[in-house]
């Protein structure tokens, strides 16, 4: 991408953009060292999907969510005033060559689980290199234009989504899927309505990423019985919180906000 305007235009058409550089090599080493310590303290089973909203408690995590190189393309897409909705570390550990064991993320749309009116953009920041071998994310370009699709209960064992949902196969064309490989310290962005998923990690390497959701301050939380959601971890990371549709839960020590 030669400019943020081109990036925003590409994102509008395709619903994603990948391979964006965020962290320096030194920052990557620091991020991985911090995460490896957390992983050691809580164990791999808990590190798979249980590290939720640590931006409220860990300064190194909040610094990731407000990194200038992360915010610049987000501002090009969503505007200058940005709210962090939620964040989660997701680790997909190797399962080896056992073809009977699965640990995958079924095809889904993020906003199936989010009671929000307005565009949601998800960041996938790579802690480890993510590639085809260790089951990087796949997207189906343009599917964010199709609206919210029906989701059903996944019947195949091994779906890592906590709700165990998936989109029926007749509603998307898997032949149009595109892999989104990332080097550690790079990120991809995808629209909350984009159909995406990932396979089972049959490599010998961990595939860990940090997922962060952002909206413009113009977005609204909505009451939707089919998508119940509370927002206890929202933080204004950039600009001003107008019209204050989401509460700013920033820790007192968050002093480097980009205004």
UniProtKB/TrEMBL annotation:
Cofactor(s) this protein requires: Fe cation
Keywords: Dioxygenase, Oxidoreductase
InterPro entries listed in its UniProt record: Phytyl_CoA_dOase-like
Gene3D superfamilies recorded: q2cbj1_9rhob like domain
TM region positions: none
Superkingdom per UniProt: Eukaryota
Entry GO MF terms: dioxygenase activity
Pfam family, one: PhyH
Alphabetical list of PANTHER family matching this protein: ALPHA-KETOGLUTARATE-DEPENDENT HYPOPHOSPHITE DIOXYGENASE-LIKE GENE A2 [PROVISIONAL]-RELATED, PHYTANOYL-COA DIOXYGENASE DOMAIN CONTAINING 1
Name of the protein in its database record: Alpha-ketoglutarate-dependent hypophosphite dioxygenase
Originating species: Biomphalaria pfeifferi (Bloodfluke planorb)
């Amino acid at each position: 991408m030669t400019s943020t305007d081109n990036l925003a235009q590409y994102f509008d058409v395709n619903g994603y953009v990948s391979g964006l550089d965020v962290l320096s090599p030194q920052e990557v080493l620091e991020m991985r060292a911090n995460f490896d310590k957390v992983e050691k303290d809580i164990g791999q089973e808990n590190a798979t999907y249980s590290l939720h909203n640590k931006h409220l408690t860990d300064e190194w995590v909040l610094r990731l969510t407000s990194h200038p190189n992360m915010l610049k393309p987000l501002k090009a897409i969503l505007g200058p005033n940005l709210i962090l909705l939620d964040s989660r570390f997701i680790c997909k550990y190797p399962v080896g060559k056992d073809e009977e064991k699965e640990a995958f993320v079924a095809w889904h749309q993020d906003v199936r689980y989010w009671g929000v009116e307005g565009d949601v953009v998800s960041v996938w920041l790579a802690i480890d290199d993510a590639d085809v071998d260790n089951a990087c994310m796949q997207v189906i370009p343009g599917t964010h234009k199709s609206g919210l699709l029906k989701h059903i209960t996944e019947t195949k064992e091994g779906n890592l989504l906590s709700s165990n949902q998936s989109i029926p196969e007749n509603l998307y064309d898997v032949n149009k899927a595109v892999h989104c490989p990332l080097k550690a310290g790079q990120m991809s962005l995808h629209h909350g309505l984009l159909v995406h998923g990932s396979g089972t990690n049959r490599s010998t390497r961990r595939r860990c990423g940090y997922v962060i959701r952002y909206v413009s301050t113009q977005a609204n939380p909505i009451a939707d019985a089919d998508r119940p959601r509370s927002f206890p971890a929202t933080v204004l990371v950039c600009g001003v919180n107008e019209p204050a549709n989401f509460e700013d839960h920033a820790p007192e020590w968050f002093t480097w906000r980009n205004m």
